């Protein structure tokens, strides 16, 4: 039953864990040779706070607009 409660809070937008992205370890060491669009991990700008190797994406920044 606890899993149902957790899933409900996820869908209601109260749990932002699904918006967390792992930051590229190589990027953190200034060693990633991939472009931001080619790497499967986040390459956040310097003004974005990294916590425990992760960043939280803004929901509005990942919305896909359908023409």
Describe this entry's structure for a reader.
The protein is of the alpha+beta class and 67 residues long. Helix content is 27%, strand content 9%. It has helices at 2-11, 25-28, 59-62; strands at residues 20-22, 54-56. Strands 1-2 form a two-stranded antiparallel sheet. The longest helix is centred in the first third of the chain and has 10 residues, at 2-11. The protein is globular. Residues 1-5 have low confidence and may be disordered. It comes from Drosophila gunungcola (fruit fly). Keywords: Metal-binding, Nucleus, Repeat, Zinc, Zinc-finger. InterPro entries: Znf-CCCH_Muscleblind-like, Znf_CCCH.
List keywords for this structure.
single chain, alpha+beta, two-stranded antiparallel ribbon, 3 helices, 2 strands, 9% strand, globular, disordered N terminus, RNA binding, repeat, nucleus
Topology:
Layout: H1 2-11, E1 20-22, H2 25-28, E2 54-56, H3 59-62
Antiparallel strand pairs: 1-2
Task: Let me know the average pLDDT.
Answer: 80
Q: Which sequence of SSEs, written as H and E, runs from N to C?
A: HEHEH
Q: Count up the helices.
A: 3
Radius of gyration: 15 Å
Structural class: alpha+beta
Principal-axes shape call: globular
The order of strands across the largest sheet is 1-2
- Total strand segments: 2
Return residue spans where pLDDT drops below 50 for at least 5 consecutive residues: 1-5
Considering DSSP H and I runs of 4 or more, what fraction of the residues is helical? 25-40%
Q: Could you tell me the strand content as a percent range?
A: 5-15%
Q: Biggest β-sheet, characterized?
A: 2 strands, antiparallel
First-residue to last-residue Cα separation: 40 Å
Protein name: C3H1-type domain-containing protein
Keywords: Metal-binding, Nucleus, Repeat, Zinc, Zinc-finger
Main location: nucleus
GO molecular function: RNA binding; zinc ion binding
């Amino acid at each position: 039953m606890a899993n149902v409660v957790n899933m409900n809070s996820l869908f209601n937008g109260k749990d932002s864990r699904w918006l967390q992205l792992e930051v590229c370890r190589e990027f953190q060491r200034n060693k990633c040779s991939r472009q931001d669009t080619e790497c499967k991990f986040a390459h956040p700008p310097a003004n974005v706070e990294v916590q425990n190797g992760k960043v939280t994406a803004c929901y509005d920044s990942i919305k896909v607009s359908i023409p």
